[in-house]
Design brief:
Chain lengths: 282, 420
């Protein structure tokens, strides 16, 4: 019995050791000069994580009014804005602001039509070449999965980089001038958090750039935080549903496993101690 | 030994079927009260059943995913996103399948190491062990091809790096030259590659089912060994699989499902790579190309050797060497409980394996502790890996003085009970 425990403890230790080993290096790769994004607070974190509806709505506004000039959001349909707390009419009103020319008229000519909830956010540029041409050769990445694509999770929480934090940090990490000794490529901007520190995106946010309907002061940090929340939703729109179901599954499984534990104990009761064994016959 | 107790149906319908197709008897004698197992199996013996559970989970979720997935280089990435966003419970299926692959490997690694520790590979279970290695190789191939399907950056570049390895065999006359193009179905990783990987990724799990059936068949000839490693021949050494091990496995399965669910519901991306959230782009090479975590130790071995061909040979040998274990280990005692020195080296081997995994995700010229590069550490760890099989195991197993082994399982149970 003690031997058994011995194996288990050692196994566990080995596993923990391995995990820390594997992780501690995971983010050691960050290059010199690039800072680790600070951890912000979100309502979405933790096992009870919920969408921060007011922030998501503000984030949508920032995206629509600022970022959508350059960044597409190909995989998000207007109908899914339901998650942001909008009702059908509100969603229709958002969609109708956009124009699509994918329909044909009776003569077979492309015809313009207003957007409907089933449509997806239109891209600002017709194709990658056009996007690069308008951005000094750099490609503004699509936002649909960007937060997930910048999320580097590690066994050590303080080593992890969360996509939302990265977006906030990137928006607020610009310097007017590059630190001394850094040779800047023309057309690039110094940023503390971008890999290599030189980013082709000009600082996109300025204080009071948007006017929030709910009166929240539109500081750079506030807008960055809101759009980060919105982008996190776009990358992982089933987060809340997932965590809600997770809680039910976990509660059910824990009760069920406790029952299984006692069932098993009871089944083994006699056999475990060898009460069925006749020592004279061994 | 497969059927210790015969199945005698009382229900007339069951009897009618049983007389014509003895399928109930087969189940009864392999998973029911008709199959006897040693009475002292611990929870490490739960992992075979867990592996079987994972195989079923992967097949069931996979089949439903295929109903919505599109194997087209332009559409694959978006179709996976479509599954996660629009398909009813698609996010759940996708998270279960993607994390399921990792769970499957965790379970199988423990299952294999259980075999190492308790000498399960030794006579008379060699063929059972070989079938296990074949299963493992098939799993590696299936996992690799599955990872390519979402056609993200890591999918694409991983496929490219791994298939390129076969270029090491270009010295073989006739087939060598074109082997990589043959695997790709063209001059680059592209649509034909995705199509064939999809086809094989769907096929191989069913091949796995077949080999798993052989595996269990082979298991039921001698039956399971046990933590003491002695044969279960005495009158009280075995108990019926049902209800004892069905109850025990059900509890273990429940605990495992909680572990699995924690990943699926709370950290579904923890085991994945963020770059796979970026569509494959043949023109942009990711900064670090790393395979899935379960291949990392072997990737480290591959890169530890500067010569491409030798690296590839070392990588494949590191798994194929398992086939030789029944003969490399010459000990008459199976379980390491009675082989203290072997046990010590076993744990060293485990730690070394984890360390190799760590090195597999570093780039070789990263400087680690003591100012030594990852490459040099990987060379040491690779040397130890092979030395474990080729030097330590043959010598230690033959020279070690083993501790006294109990006379029977039943006697050991009574003995343990006396001690309390
Ligand atoms: C799909 C993957 C696999 C499945 C479903 C599977 C299934 C099983 C089951 C149900 C058992 C009996 C229960 C137990 O001892 O845990 C078993 C035993 C065993 N398996 Fe596997 N297995 C798989 C992979 C492997 C692999 C990869 C290896 C080794 C390379 C392996 C080697 C063994 C051995 C040696 C035993 C006998 C253990 C003993 O009696 O001590 N199996 N397997």
């Amino acid at each position: 019995m003690t031997m058994m425990r011995n194996i288990k403890i050692k196994g566990l230790l080995a596993a923990i050791l391995g995990m820390t080993a594997i992780t501690s290096g995971a983010n050691g790769a960050t290059a010199e000069g690039v800072l680790h994004p600070e951890r912000n607070e979100y309502t979405t974190t933790g096992i009870f994580g919920k969408w921060d509806i007011p922030s998501l709505q503000r984030g949508l506004q920032v995206y629509v009014e600022v970022c959508s000039a350059c960044h597409s959001l190909d995989l998000v349909a207007f109908r899914t804005l339901e998650d942001l707390g909008y009702n059908e009419d509100e969603i229709k009103a958002i969609a109708v602001e956009y124009e699509y020319n994918d329909a044909l008229d009776d003569d077979g000519e492309p015809m313009f039509r207003p957007g409907i909830p089933a449509d997806y956010f239109p891209a600002p540029f017709a194709n990658e070449k056009a996007a690069r041409a308008a951005n000094g050769g750099a490609l503004p990445p699509d936002f649909s999965t960007l937060v997930k694509a910048r999320e580097h999770l590690s066994f050590l929480p303080w080593n992890s980089v969360y996509g939302e934090d990265y977006v906030v940090a990137l928006m607020t990490g610009y310097h007017d001038e590059a630190p001394e000794g850094v040779e800047m490529t023309p057309g690039l901007y110094y940023n503390d958090y971008f890999a290599g520190n030189q980013i082709a995106m000009a600082p996109p946010l300025f204080d009071d750039m948007v006017e929030y309907a709910d009166g929240t002061p539109a500081t750079i940090h506030q807008m960055a935080y809101d759009v980060a929340n919105f982008m996190a939703w776009a990358s992982d729109p089933t987060m809340q549903e997932r965590k809600e179901m997770g809680l039910n599954v976990m509660l059910f499984m824990i009760v069920f496993v406790i029952l299984l534990y006692f069932t098993n104990k009871r089944v083994w009761k006699k056999v475990k101690k060898g009460d069925d064994i006749d020592p004279s016959k061994l | 030994m497969a059927s210790d107790k015969k199945f005698e149906p009382t229900n007339p319908t069951v009897k009618w079927v049983e007389d014509r197709l003895p399928i109930f008897g087969l189940l009864y004698s392999s998973l029911g009260a008709g199959y006897n197992a040693p009475r002292n199996l611990n929870y490490w013996w739960n992992f075979g059943v867990l592996a079987g559970f994972m195989l079923v989970v992967q097949i069931v979720t996979g089949i439903v995913l295929v109903m919505h997935y599109v194997p087209d280089v332009n559409l694959a990435f978006d179709s996976v996103q479509h599954i996660r966003r629009d398909v009813n419970y698609g996010w759940l299926l996708q998270a279960v399948h993607a994390n399921g692959a990792s769970m499957f490997f965790i379970v199988v690694y423990i299952h294999i190491l259980r075999g190492f520790y308790f000498g399960s590979y030794k006579a008379p279970r060699e063929i059972l062990w070989f079938l296990g290695i074949i299963i493992y190789l098939l799993m590696m191939a299936t996992g690799f091809m599955g990872y390519v399907l979402p056609w993200g950056q890591m999918s694409f570049w991983g496929a490219k790096v791994i298939t390129n390895l076969f270029g090491a065999f270009d010295f073989i006359p006739f087939i060598g030259d074109g082997i990589v193009e043959w695997l790709w179905g063209g001059f680059a990783v592209g649509q034909p590659t995705l199509n064939r990987f999809f086809s094989l990724h769907y096929l191989l799990p069913f091949v796995l089912v077949g080999v798993v059936i052989l595996h269990i068949w082979a298991l039921h000839i001698p039956g399971s060994t046990n933590p003491l490693g002695i044969d279960a021949n005495g009158p009280y050494d075995k108990i019926p699989f049902h209800p004892y091990y069905t109850a025990k496995d059900a509890f273990g399965l429940g605990v495992f499902i909680i572990f699995f669910a924690a990943f699926v519901f709370y950290i579904p991306d923890f085991l994945g790579h963020p770059d796979n959230y970026i569509k494959a782009n043949p023109l942009v090479t990711p900064e670090h190309i790393v395979p899935e975590w379960y291949y990392l130790p072997f990737y480290a071995i591959l890169r530890a050797i500067p010569d491409k061909l030798l690296g590839v040979v070392a990588m494949f040998s590191s798994i194929l060497i398992l086939f030789a274990m029944p003969w490399l280990d010459g000990s008459r005692v199976r379980s390491m409980r009675f082989r203290p020195l072997s046990k010590f080296f076993f744990w060293l081997f485990v730690v070394n394996g984890i360390f190799l995994g760590y090195l597999g995700q570093r780039s070789p010229d990263d400087v680690l502790a003591l100012g030594v590069t990852a490459l040099v550490y990987a060379q040491f760890a690779t040397t130890f890996y092979f030395a474990y099989f080729l030097v330590i195991m043959p010598l230690v197993s033959r020279m070690e003085t083993t501790k006294p082994v109990p006379t029977s399982i039943a006697a050991a149970v009574l003995e343990a009970n006396k001690k309390g």
